[in-house]
Amino acid sequence: MDVEWQVTDKTADPIPEGGWLCFPFAIEQPQFKLGRLGGPIDPARDIVRGANKDLICLSGGLTITGTGGLAIGLCPVDSPCVSLGEPGLWKYTLDDKARKAAIFVNLYNNEWPYQLS
Predict the structure, then answer these.
(1) Which candidate, 40, 29, 38, 22, places its Cα nearest to that of 84?
(2) Best exposed site among 13, 18, 72, 111 by fewest CB in 10 Å?
(3) Whose CA is closest to 101, among 81, 75, 73?
(4) pLDDT tens digit sequence for 19-47
(5) Is 67 exposed, middle or buried (0-12, 13-18, 19+ CB in 10 A)?
(6) What is the value of pTM for the model shown?
(7) Rounded distance between C-alpha atoms, residue 114 and residue 117, angstroms
(8) What are residue 69's phi and psi, to 5 degrees?
(9) Distance separating alpha carbons of residues 1 and 114, to the nearest angstrom
(10) pLDDT for residue 114 is more than 60
């Protein structure tokens, strides 16, 4: 499946916002493998404590596997920032948590700090 999305004539807004594509999957007890620089990682075991686990940048795709061998792969070629289970902007979770089998692909955000004059 190939998904294409575009926005036309969007008004700039200084209020924090982000746009997502959500891909929910009917997979029970999901386990994730993420394509990161250096090789695939399991976010439940391979992200160090203290690092953000809510917004993750990929260098490739990802997979979700569940019970009974059910699996799906997703490769967001032009949008490498993803969140697992729920949108992850403006969050910073230190410990791993149970996640839903949903991938949120971040299309845009103005999360980065700025200073008003």
Answers:
(1) 22
(2) 13
(3) 73
(4) 899 999 999 999 999 999 999 999 999 98
(5) exposed
(6) 0.86
(7) 10
(8) 85, 5
(9) 37
(10) no
